[in-house]
């Protein structure tokens, strides 16, 4: 069936990489779909990419929605703690704010509602309350009017975790338009980041499908479609690969050196991340004394705007090459920094032309495994750790790390004094996480990492055809 009108909904910018910069649009159009981007972000899709877009200009959600969303998250984590007899879910919570009378009163209000609703039925009550709040907003009515004018056959939401998506999706459902959402990240389900309830859900893998059924009793098996994620598709696009000479020339890298990628983390995940970069620089210097010719490519976390790495980079500028992600700031807030299509090629080539990656618990392990490159995870405390600073070891206790088929799916550095010998062993071919890392990659991202866009379009076609027939 052709001439289906599909509305691709961006409630925020996180879906751009997966659904605007990959071949996703082209694949859908080849199937005869008319694709319109429903754009709630500041990123100018039509201006930058020439895509047909409808802008959502009304941005205000209900003022109480963020509070009820936080209540929902806490309740879901409390229910999971009890259901699975596992305290790890409590570590996903952010601390309450008691600074000042206003914040204290709001915190007491939130905690009271959490206490009164910490059950499966309570979750549904709070979700119903959030929906009621969002249906009362100008944004809901604005989006409903847009939908009545566009008359799409389906609304595909590119992430499940944005509060900005609740009102627009409710408007679609109230008009009888089928809705489908994509679960954005590998760790999102156990972290209680499922803000929206849609008719269908695209999930990465059988593992994520199982998680959705475990955590969300209101989601039925026939609503879950295993598709994989377009996130890793660019790693298999050979047209993105530059020659080593061209890549090194573009970024002023030394062709006599082999490079190790240090992939930076956000400040919440790894508050002392700069010291791991410093440890890597020391290890590289020691190996270079032994006759190795090594350098470091430092790729920061795209939304990290701190200057915490500057001193380390300056002190080691002879071994550290800074290659910033090609993201674009369109506003002053962190959520107004957007990826670009060019960054897909940059990341592809950083992976291809590095010997390995090191970081704290990042999914870049899968980016590099896709290129048959090892990953070292830092898993030791820094001496600068003190009360009030989060220990990075907590990250590896999270539920999504339990998906590892074995401890060898990543190379864990548990002592900074091991780092030099581990890197040397990797370079000599005596240490690798690639065999087990590939198994982990398949568990998390599914068996067909190159076909995720195709499978999502299969899901869209099936949903629309079943409804029309």
UniProtKB/TrEMBL annotation:
Keyword line: Transferase
Record's protein name: UDP-glycosyltransferase
InterPro entries: TagF_C
UniProt GO molecular function: transferase activity
Domain of life: Bacteria
Protein's organism: Flavobacterium commune
